[in-house]
Predict the 3D structure of the following.
Amino acid sequence: MSDPLIMQAIARLVPHGARVLDLGCGDGALLAHLQQHNGCTGYGVELSDANVHACVQRGVNVLQLNLDEGLSLFADQSFDVVLQIDTLQHLRNAETMLRETVRVGRVGIVAFPNFGHWFNRLSVLQGRMPVTKRLPYQWYDTPNIRVGTFADFGDLARKNHLQVVDAFGLQNGHEVRTLPNLMAGTAVYKLQRS
Amino acid sequence: MNLIATPQSMTFEAPLPLQSGASIRGYSLSYETYGTLNADKSNAVLICHALNASHHVAGVYADQAHNVGWWDNMIGPGKSLDTNQFFVIGVNNLGSCFGSTGPMHVNPDTGRVYGADFPVVTVEDWVNAQARLLDALGIEQLAAVMGGSLGGMQALSWTLQYPERVKHAVVVASAPNLNAENIAFNEVARRAIVTDPDFHEGHFYEHGVVPKRGLRIARMIGHITYLSDDVMNEKFGRELREAVTHNATGYKYSTQEVEFQIESYLRYQGDKFSEYFDANTYLLITRALDYFDPARAFGGDLSAALARASCQFLLVSFSTDWRFSPARSREMVKALLDNRRDVSYAEIDAPHGHDAFLLDDARYLNVVRSYFDNMAKALNQGGAA
């Protein structure tokens, strides 16, 4: 998560002093932010060597693990918050990981690029895959193995009997609560087991 | 090469009680130090060695320019563990054959060379002996304890035996105990030594012989477990020795000659090892490996065992290490997570098997460097690292 506005918007959802697991924590910027400003503790999980090194440099606890191999290292309900920020679109089994997120954490916070954003819809209507700030890749070189919409994710949460505590969009760092599926480049869900 | 190492020795008269119930007295430990201990003695880092290593961790000796410390690529001025920042201590373990009291020395109780009568020492015993050395050096608390393989086991044991004396532990290519396969390999090595007619039940010194055949085979077996299948194939494959390929048919159709390169390599390693390593030391150290199992006293529950640890951890494993595989490191990570300890874990995708922990890999060396850099920053700010 490199966008500081999205980072701050996510940080607002994390209670002070929470024990946090950040799945796909990147260079550890969000965790470092949560430690410094929200009094949080916790761990990041990363696969890339460069990101693991960046986290160690920042003094953030990081575990080099492949999320596609599951979260068996983590006990049930062992974290207050499990973050999945821009991770979902890279995972082979997003549904399993969603269930694991709420097994390990009391609360799960998931954010991902919303393919339902009007700009993306317009682009596809014109016969082209969108290239935006949130989806900056060409169709042939994207690391995302899937795209989905704000509305799609709501269906997946329901299918897995997850309780949506809060759901909104983010656009330019601002919360979008009116027609988020159309109006926001980023979808954010706060979930727990029902 | 600008770091000059000076070996030192310290003698301990008071008996050291051992885990077996025996004790050892009048023993000495060889050690080396690099860098400068700061005023509040807060920058000390202890390095624990593995099977075939010593207190000579970094630098060279003034009169032996080619005798380079075994972790010199990791430790020294400006290196990952920077001796300009930290006071680094390398210590040779009891029972070893590189200077500290071992089976080739005289037992003060009998006036005879210990030989096979040297008491069985454990990882815990070594840690207790190391703690006494730190006492004598006036070091109350370590900034870090660090080791690879069997050295990593000692580092882990430090955090359990003396939790208040360790702020950080760096555990590389290690395991929370040996599995059956590991013990099996050790047993084959030990049988090779013990059944050598020159072993004389461990009292070969007085016969003026060395059980070199056994040592050679023990080393050959060990060496196979240090390498990965990939690296062995890449290095040697099915290549034949030059002397063989001069033969028109390729093979010599012999059963006892050295024909393949891998045979030649293993024999060379075995020969070299048998020239300097002590047979009784090999038995002792492999036994210490077999016995190490901090979870044993907790019904096999590693999480319960590690509850005593209070320091911060960095663990590193290597993808092709099948001796102490990444899964073994993950067991330790899991136990630390269960106890909510600060831990970082790097799993380096390296082709070199267990040996990778001694080799140059930028990702590995950089992670360790950044970990120690943060420690140094906190030390220099007088903060709590």
Remarks:
- The radius of gyration of chain A is 16 Å.
- Chain A touches chain B at residues 19, 41, 43, 49, 52-53, 55-57, 59, 61-65, 73-75, 78 (CB under 8 Å).
- Helices of chain A lie at 4-11, 29-38, 49-58, 94-104, 118-125, 150-159, 180-183.
